[in-house]
C-alpha cells in the first residue's frame, strides 16, 4: 500500500503559495471538463447505440467510485460488489417488470406466467410495485446488507484475504440462490425484456438518451461526493486505518466503524449502479452478480489506479470499452489480448494508469524518488 | 481545508451543466404509445449482404457453440459457392457472445446497427436467447435459433430451428412408457431448461400413470455427484431422465458407473448429450445409454452423407456432427429458401413467405410452420454405440408438428 500516492496527500503537501491558484482550480476545472465531455460532447459525437454502451460503462464506473473509496482508500478488498450491484439491479428490475405487466393489464410478470407456480404474486414482490419504495430499496437494501455484514466482520477484525473470500462467498451464494428460485426470480435468465422506465418507453431512442444523461449525472455527483469524503477528516482517518490500523486504534478511534462507513457507502453506490444498469441494458441476471463479475468490478479500478478517483473511473470505463472493441474486432482472440492488458497494467504499473504521470516524472528526475512516496 | 468550497463551486457548475443538458433532451414516448420505428435498415445495396453469426467463441459455452459456428460458416460457404442468395454473396460477420447474456444483447445490437446484417444466426442457451429477444424485436430483425429448447416462447422475430418440447421430450417420455420404464428419477443442471422441462415431465407422468420418484439439480459446472447418484440408486427408479448440461455430465456418468449402475440395470435418457459430448465424456461410460434428438451423425440419407463429408473435409476427419450443428446448418438454407420465395431480403416479406418452406435436410425433410415460426421435425431416440456414435432405435415415423405451448396436450394445460 505504501507505493500509492494519493492526490489528497500531494495536494496538501506539495501546494506552495505560488501554485495555489492553479491548485485551487485544478479539481473544479477537471470536474467541469468531465461534465462537458459526458453531458455535452459525448451525446453529440456518439451514435445512439454507442451512447447506450457508454451508459453501461458508466454504470461500472459508478461501482468503481465505491471501490476506490473502500479498497483504494480503505484497503478493504471488496471482491463481492456484485452482490450489491445485483440487489440494486433486481430491486429496480422487479419494479419495472411489475410496471410492464400492469401496463398490459397483467398481474404477473411474463416469466412468472411461464415458470411460476400459480397466479399469486409472491409477498416479497408486492411492495416493489410502489416506485418510491423500489427506488429507495435500490440503495437501502445493499447498504443494509453491507452494514449487517460489516458490523460483524469488522468488529471481529476479519481483514485482508479472509474478508475478500467472505465477499466472494456471499456473491456466489446470492447468484446460486437466484438461479434456484426460477419461479420467482427468473432463474438463470434473470429479469429480461424490460420495456418501460417509469412510464417512458425504453424502445424510444430519446428515452434511451435521457437514461444516459441520468447515469452520467449520477456518476458526476457521486464523484463529487466521494471527493468531498476523500479530503474530509474522515478521508484522512480512512487512509490512516488502511496504512496502520493498530496505530489508529491506539489513538482512540474505532477502526471498525471507520471501515464500516466506507464499506456501506461503496455498497450503496454499487446498488445505485445496478439500478441504473437495468434501464440502460434491459437485463439483470445472476451472471452479473457472481464471482467473475465481482472480480471484474475491481479489475477496472485496479487498472486505472484504485486510490485515485479519476483513475478508478477511467479504468472501469477503459476496461469495459476495450473489451467491447477488442471482441468486435477479434472475436476469437480478444480474451488473450485483454489478459495481456491486465498483466501489463498490474505488473508494471501497480498504482494503475493514474500513476503513469508520477512514474514518468520520477524517471526524469531520479533524485526525487526517495522523497515523498516512501 | 480549501478543497471544500472549491468543490462546491465545481459541483454548482456541474449541476448547472446538467440542468442545461436535461432541458435540451426532450422527453420521449410514453409506454404503450406506438413507437413503430422502421427498425434498423439492413444493407442490401451492394453485391454482398452481411449475415450475423452470434455464438460464444469464449467462456464456458464455447466448447459447444464453436461447433455450431463452424456449421453456420460451412452453410454460408456452400451457399456462396452455389451463387449466393438472390444473386448476392453472403458475408458472414462473427461476434463473440462470450457466454455472457448482456454481451449477447450488446453484440446483437452491434450486428444490426453497425454491420446492418440481413439476418442473424446463433445463440445456444435459453438465457442468451431471452437476452437478445427484445433486441431483435425492437429492431425488427430476424434471429435463427438452432438449439432444442424448453418451449413456451414464440417471438415474431425468431425462427426456432431446433426442437421444441413436443418434438424431443414428449416423444422421449412416450418411448420410456412403451418400454415399461414408468418410475423416473429427474437429474438436471440448475437453470431454466431443466427446471421447465422437469415441470413438463412431471405433468406428463401424472397424466400417463408414470411416477417421478425424485428431482435433483446441480449448479452448472458442478462436478460433485456422489449424493445425487446414491439417491438415484436407492430410489428404485426404472430410468433416469437427464437434463444435465456440459461438463457436469462427465462427473455424473463416472460416478454412475463407479456406483455399479449400468445402461442395463438403470438406463439414463439424456437430452443434452450429442456426438460431441459423447466424445468428451468417454464412450466407456455412455455405451448403451439413451438420447433424444432429431438428428444423429448416423441418420441415413444422401443429404446427411453430403453434410458429414463436407463438415469433416472442412474441420477434420475425426470431428463428429451433432443435432444443434445440423439445425444451425439447415437454418441458413431455410432462410435462403424464404428469401428466394419472397424475392426480397425484407424481414416482413421473408416472414410472410416462411410458411410451408421445405428443405431436404440431413435429418430428413423439414417444413417451416409459419404460424409458430418453428419447424416440423422427426423425433429420434438413439443409443450410444461403442464407437462413440449414436444409433437410432426409434423414430416418430414422420415429422412432428411443432407445438411450443403444448396446446395439443391436455396434461399440459396447467403449465402456461
Describe this structure in words.
The complex is a heterodimer of chains A (374) and B (416). In chain A, a hairpin with a 2-residue loop joins strand 1 (196-197) and strand 2 (200-201). Chain A has one domain (26-292). Chain A has helices at residues 7-14, 20-45, 48-73, 81-103, 110-115, 131-155, 161-180, 182-185, 205-231, 233-243, 245-250, 255-281, 291-304, 309-329, 334-348, 356-364, and strands at residues 196-197, 200-201. Chain A has 16 helices and two strands. Chain A has 374 residues and is mostly helical. A two-stranded antiparallel sheet of chain A has the order 1-2. Chain B has 416 residues and is an alpha/beta fold. Chain B has 13 helices and 15 strands. In chain B, the strands form three sheets. A seven-stranded mixed β-sheet of chain B has the order 7-6-8-9-10-14-15, sandwiched between helices. Chain B has a five-stranded parallel β-sheet with strand order 2-1-3-4-5, sandwiched between helices. In chain B, strands 11-12-13 form a three-stranded antiparallel β-sheet, covered by helices on one side. Chain B is globular, with a radius of gyration of 24 Å. The termini of chain B are far apart. Chains A and B meet through helix 2, helix 3, helix 4, helix 5 and helix 7 of A and helix 1, strand 2, helix 3, helix 4 and helix 6 of B.
Main attributes?
heterodimer, A: mainly alpha, 16 helices, globular, disordered N terminus, disordered C terminus, B: alpha/beta, Rossmann fold, seven-stranded mixed sheet, 13 helices, 15 strands, 19% strand
